Amino acid sequence: MMVWTLSFFIPGWSVAAMNAIRAGNSLLIGEALISLVLILAPPGVDLAHEPYHRVQLFTLSVDTQSEMGPQPPCGAEVIPSYPRIDDSATVKSWSQMPYGGDWRPPTCTGWTVAGFTTLVTTVARFRYFTEAESLLRRFGAISGLAGIRYWSTTHKQWRTLVVDAYGLTTSKSGKRRNDFTPDEMKEGNVLYFEQTDNISGKAIYRMHVAKVSTDRIVIDVENVSTLRYLFIPIAHPGEMQAIYFLDRESSDVWRYYSMVRTGKMANRLIAANESSAVNRAVAFYRYLVGIPTDQEPPAAR
To answer: What's this model's pTM, rounded to 2 decimal places?
Structure first.
C-alpha cells in the first residue's frame, strides 16, 4: 500500500490539451477529460453552519495488492474505514487489477453492471449543526453548482468550471425549472438536471433519491446524455456514476462515504490520469462541507 498526502486541485483546460489530441498524448488528454465529471457533485453546505473552513489535506491510498474491495455503509464493515472527526478525508483510487473487469458493485448501490475504468472512494466525518433537511435542500439546489472555481495549472489562475446548472422538468434538454425543494427530494424520486461546464458543454444527469430519513441520506447520480470531448464520445449514458451516503453520527457530526466510477466501456482516455479522478472526488467533498473551492492554496501551481 502506497500512501500520499495531497490537497485539492482540478487540472486546467488549455490549448495544450488540443495539441495533445494531435500528438496522441493520452496522459494530457486524460487529465483534461477527467475534470469533466466534477458535474456529479451536488451543491455545497451553507458556510454559515460549517465552522471548519481550513484548507483540508487528503490521504490518498492507491491499491497495489489484492484486497476485499470498497464497501459502503450497507450493513457491513466500511472499507475504507471512517477517519476521526478532526482528521482529513480519506480518498482511495482502486486499481483495475484485480477488480476492474469483473468487480461487482455492492447491492445497496443499485448498480447492476460489473467492472470499472476508474473507481474512487472518499470517506470522511464532518461537522454540521442543522437537520438532515438542510443537507437535502443543498442537494436539490442545482443552481448552486454554477460558479464552481478551480485552479488551472495551465493558466496559473483560478477559473470557473461550471458555467450554468439548473433542474429539468423531464430528462430532455430545454425543459428548465427552478431548484428542487425538500418536498421533491422524497425517497424514491428521480429528478433530472442539466449543466454547462467550460469543457464539455451541456450534459444531462439523473438524480435518484434512494434514501431519506432524519439520520440518513443516500443519493445516486448518473449521466443521461453522452459525454463528448471534441465530438468524440467518452462516456455513453450510465457510464458516469456516483453515489453518496450521509449518515448522522451525533447531533453535530455526519459520516460521509462516496463512490465515483466510470464504467468499463468508457473511453480509456479517462483512465490516463488517475490523480485527476481522485482530485474530482476530493473537490466534491471540499465543496460539500463548505470549504471555498478557490481557497488558497491550491494543491498544485
So the answer is: 0.78
> How many Å apart are CA 277 and CA 271, to the nearest integer?
8
Rg (CA), the chain: 18
Tens-digit pLDDT string for the chain (301 aa): 433 333 333 333 334 444 444 444 444 444 444 444 443 444 333 333 433 333 344 555 544 434 678 999 998 899 999 999 888 888 888 876 666 678 899 999 999 999 898 898 989 999 888 888 988 988 899 998 887 777 665 677 777 777 899 999 999 887 899 999 999 999 999 999 998 876 667 889 999 999 999 999 999 999 999 887 777 887 889 988 999 999 999 999 999 999 998 888 877 766 655 666 676 677 777 777 777 777 675 543 4
β-pairing, 90-93 with 58-62? Answer: parallel
Angle ∠(162,168,173) on CA atoms, nearest 5: 80
- Spatial CB neighbours of 51, under 8 Å, sequence gap ≥ 6: 127
- Three-state SS string across 68-121, please? CCCECCCCCCCECCCCCCCCCCEEEECCHHHHCCCCCCCHHHCCCCCCCCEEEE
**The C-alpha cell of 189 is what?**
424520486
State the Cα–Cα distance between residues 26 and 285, nearest whole angstrom: 27
CB 222 within 8 A of CB 240: yes
